[in-house]
Amino acid sequence: MYWEPDKECLDREELEQLQIERLQSTLTRVYAHVPFYRKKFDFVGVLPEDIESLSDLARLPFTTKDEVRGNYPYGMFAVPLREVVRIHATSGTVETAAVVGYTRNDIKTWSNLAARLLAAGGVTKDDVVQICFAYGLSTGGFGLHYGAERIGASVIPASIGNTARQIKIMKDFKTTALVSTPSYAMLVADTIREKGVPVSALSLKYGLFGAEPWSEEMRRQIQDTLGIVATDNYGLSEVLGPGVSGECLERKGLHINEDHFLAEVIDPETLRPVPAGQMGELVITTLTREAFPMIRFRTRDLTCILPESCPCGRTGRRMSRVAGRTDDMLVIKGAHVFPSHIGALLQEIGGGELCYQIVIDRRGAMDEVTVLVEADGGAFTGQERRQAGLADAIRKKLAHELGVTVDVKVVEKEALSRVEGKVKPVVDHRKL
Ligand code: DLL
User: Fold this and answer.
1) 101 with 143, same domain?
2) Structural domain includes residue 16
3) Nearest residue (CA) to ligand 1, atom 1
4) Nearest in space to 406 (alpha carbons), one of 397, 417, 415
5) Is 344 in the same domain as 212?
């Protein structure tokens, strides 16, 4: 089901004309209103009017996550604050977050793009949509909520947590579409199985999942247990939130909303474009964002452009499901976590003396983190209650600062293996 057929099925030539017009207008705006971009363009000696074709885009510099953070909070806004009607931010400590603004038009565009992915995943105005994303600074809850309302579906802003209650709501309110992270859908599926709730007691038909990596195996398990058709959708706060790309019911790659985003895939080492079909890092330029335009943003997400056209008739090129990242950022239950950040927090807690190891594992497609901490200096050794207290205090501090709970285990003094007397701070089993 199309939401905006004239745009989703736009002839390629017309689309490229629209893209270049929108690109030129975006570049002119950022050059005039965002000193950060003006400096960068001046540095390479390229003016907005020098960009005459889509291939000229490669003459402009990339924008990185660190640069966005370095402009905290409003340095990259292209409109005055009085034109901004919404502010979101990425997870993590507030000072290191990317703060993103939306004008009224941006919200309208966002709602339409979220509606596109929901409609492509089967949602119509006859559906009852349960949104199990947090309604807060992160973009998932509000973005998808507005999209579902735009379609005219009956939307339940269920938010996250209390799975038993969520399942009761699902059953009693006759939810037909579940919108969540894939890991939350797995939890719902496991709970339903454990509690012996028959799928026939539910009215679910569709699941629309995103915000973190998942696998075909997870899709199979979720679809089989919940009796639904599950689609993948992708987005990131720095360029919009959910609504950058999404699968149709063919479930063979995510259609990029190319009338709003220019997508490049580059080799993360050479920074040169790679041909369609080859994996690389996704780089996005926004074409319609007013408050927060983004030029050649390095997403750090690994994907490839799928060369074949899709039987659904949409002309927007598809990207493969995100296969990983080119930095060490972990996506845990939708929250962004850098091992270095955990390390810094542990140093804070222990006043520099805690011996710890961050162990990263992968269960299916999901990242999992266990923090091992040595009980130090006799104070905790052998005293189980105190050890449990320490683990709890660390868990709480990390949850508070990272916005997600990670597993914490207190181990005996010198239990962590040492190389030349030193404990390796991060052990990443995913890369071994
Ligand atoms: O996760 C926006 C979103 C919300 C998308 C709800 C879909 C559904 P951020 O919190 O800024 O925004 O996180 C963006 O999450 O760079 C990817 O690494 C990862 N990510 C998002 N969607 C997917 C997906 C939202 N479908 C970061 N598959 C991105 C794999 C995903 N990774």
Assistant:
1) yes
2) no
3) 211
4) 397
5) no
Q: Whole-number mean pLDDT of the chain? A: 92
148 and 130 both lie in a single domain = yes
- Report the pLDDT averaged over residues 253-277: 97
Establish if 203 belongs to a structural domain.
yes
Q: Does residue 158 or residue 406 have the better pLDDT?
A: 158
The count of other CB atoms within 10 Å of the CB of residue 385 is: 8
Out of 149-153, 286-290, 389-393, least confident range: 389-393
Residues with CB under 6 A from ligand 1: 90, 133, 138-140, 210-213, 232-237, 241-242, 299, 301, 322, 325, 331, 334
Same domain, yes or no: 149 and 230: yes
How far away, in angstroms, is 384 Cα from ligand 1 center? Answer: 39
Same domain, 370 and 246: no
Counting every residue written for the chain, the total comes to: 432
**404 band by pLDDT with thresholds 50, 70 and 90:** confident
Q: Give the integer Cα–Cα distance in Å for 122 and 117.
A: 9
Could you tell me the distance, in angstroms and rounded to a whole number, from the CA of residue 351 to the centre of ligand 1? 34
Q: Final residue of a domain: which of 298, 327, 356? A: 327
Is the link from the previous residue into 73 a cis peptide, with omega within 30 of 0?
Answer: yes
Structure tokens at 392: 């709890």
**Number of domains within the chain:** 2
Average of pLDDT values for 202-231?
Answer: 95
Separation of alpha carbons 308 and 321, rounded Å: 15
Return the pLDDT at 368. 86
Backbone angles phi, psi at 361, to 5 degrees: -130, 170
Q: Is residue 77 in a domain?
A: no
Q: Give the domain-ending residue among 293, 327, 361.
A: 327
Single out the residue of 97, 111, 27 nearest to residue 293, CA to CA: 27
What residue owns the CA closest to ligand 1's atom 9?
236
Q: Best substitution site from 117, 133, 234 to test ligand 1's pocket, by max atoms within 8 Å of Cβ?
A: 234
Of all atoms in ligand 1, which is nearest to the CA of residue 300? 16
Nearest CA to ligand 1 atom 14: 236
| Residue 97: pLDDT over 50 | yes
Region of poorest pLDDT, from 154-168, 210-224, 336-350: 336-350
Q: Determine the pLDDT at residue 379.
A: 46
Evaluate whether 76 touches 68 at the Cβ level (below 8 Å): yes
Domain of 186, CATH number, reads 3.40.50.12780
Domain of 118, in residue numbers: 86-327
Ligand 1 centroid distance, CA of 55 (Å) = 27
Residue type, 361: D
Tell me: do 299 and 348 sit in the same domain. no
Are residue 244 and residue 263 in the same domain, yes or no? Answer: yes
Nearest CA to ligand 1 atom 27: 236
Substitution candidate for ligand 1 out of 236, 238, 338 with most atoms within 8 A of CB? 236
Same domain, 164 and 246: yes
- Whether residue 296 is contained in a domain is answered as yes
Nearest CA to ligand 1 atom 18: 301
